[in-house]
Amino acid sequence: MFSDPERTLARIAELRKHPVSFDPPASIARHVNVSSHDVGGWPVFTIAPKTPSNAGHVVYLHGGSYVFQINPLHWKFIARLVRATGTTFTVPIMPLAPEGRAAVVVDRAATIVQSIVQDVGAENVSIMGDSSGGGMTMAVSMELRDRKLPPLHAIVLIAPWLDISGTDPMLAEIAPHDPWLAVPGTHAAGALYRAELDESDWRVSPIHGDLSGLGPITLFTGTRDLVHADALRLRERAQHEGFALDFQVGEGMIHDYPLLPIPEAAHARRIVERAIVCGGSTV
Question: Domains in the chain, please, with CATH?
Answer without folding.
Answer: 5-278 (3.40.50.1820)
